Amino acid sequence: MAVGDRGRDARAHDPLHDGPGDLHLHSDRSDGTEPPAAVMAAAHRHGLEVVALTDHDTTTGWAEAAEAATSLGMTFLPGIELSARHEWRSVHVLGYLLDPDDGALRALTDRIRESRLTRARRIVENIGRDYALTWDDVRAHTADDATVGRPHIADALVTTGHVRDRAEAFAGILHPRGGYYVELYAPDPVTAVATIVAAGGVPVIAHPAGRAGLLPARLVERMLDAGLAGFELGHRENVEPALRTLRELTRERGLIATGSSDYHGAGKPNVPGEFTTSAEMVERIVARGTGSAPVAP
Length: 297
Ligand code: AMP
Ligand code: FE
Ligand code: FE
Ligand code: ZN
Fold this sequence. Notes:
Elements: H1 15-18, E1 21-25, H2 36-45, E2 50-53, H3 62-71, E3 75-86, E4 89-96, H4 103-128, H5 135-139, H6 150-159, H7 166-171, H8 189-198, E5 202-205, H9 217-225, E6 230-234, H10 242-253, E7 256-259, H11 279-288
Parallel strand pairs: 1-2, 2-3, 5-6, 6-7
Antiparallel strand pairs: 3-4, 4-5
Helix pairs in contact: 2-3
Bound molecules: adenosine monophosphate (AMP), fe (iii) ion (2 copies) and zinc ion.
């Protein structure tokens, strides 16, 4: 099915459902289950025309993804999803068209990934007190140099028979209050936004209206002052009433609104193209990004 066909059903024209772009996809360079080329092939099967690879805290999948996307006739936008935190809540900041070799960006992502590794090993040690689980079990699910996270531990818990799927692992053993959790180092969201901007990128807050509710208004203003470009209004985890507030803010301030699937291969039920980004918003992102270029077919 072509992406354009989606708009011809009963639903009125809705750029978050009938646009050409899906700008939030994960590969096995982080916690997706497929290599970058396979992720691009999945997006193409779902009729997408513009795609971004946004692995957590790494850009190492770009070359393979760009090659695969363009050979399938799609336009590729280089992307990343930075792990940030405000007080207790995790805030994910997407960045598009940033310079992967920018020194401050590299320093930040190196620090996050190093912390993720130490922290994952500690979580596994904690779990190992009660369940038969080793670091080797986790490594078996982690591609070389991939950004490691709780999803890889979840996959190891599935393989070792302790849970049925990632969702069950996250609801129990891997939950922050599950008894085994260890925090990772994560910058505050303003730093993440500013780092993406300084690297020539375009920052967009991922799944900004999730169950944790609205981000504090003061934080949003500080992020906007730091160069935040917009919000991922189309994402399955967004819920009302926070979503309505952000929709209004986006309209009032003329911000960029994206919609995306947050595809993780077999790691989540999310399907490429389940939310989409309009051609107009893709153009605005491309006009604003200066750190790297979109790759056309
Ligand atoms: P971490 O950053 O290592 O703390 O792990 C958080 C990551 O796990 C997020 O990026 C999500 O992609 C993923 N995640 C969170 N909840 C779930 C879930 N219920 N099922 C599958 N993946 C999840
Ligand atoms: Fe993820
Ligand atoms: Fe995320
Ligand atoms: Zn994501």
